[in-house]
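Hi R.,

Here's the chain you asked about this morning:
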Amino acid sequence: MSHEPTTAKQPSHAGEGHLVENVVVFVVIFGAFLLGIYLLNWLTLETVWPMAAIVVISFLAFFIPQGILGRSDTGYNLAEGKQTDEKSTSAAVGS
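And here is the predicted structure, written out as tokens:
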């Protein structure tokens, strides 16, 4: 028997090794945030389009990082400590 310690690969942190992608996503989402603030200049009780644009931009600013770029479909497995690239349809529910 060997008494050498086994070296298990440590799980990588979220976004580790994806600097360019992280910077691009940050710039796009931050730009959407600044655009939303800028649209507040035209927001009055008579005009509806600035608020509609702000709602759409806000939805995209949350949906893109969390639902498309994130790992929302593997969150259940990661919470249990399972390292997997396999994507399930939903948390703990199989069809």
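One quick note: The mean pLDDT is 74.

Cheers,
M.
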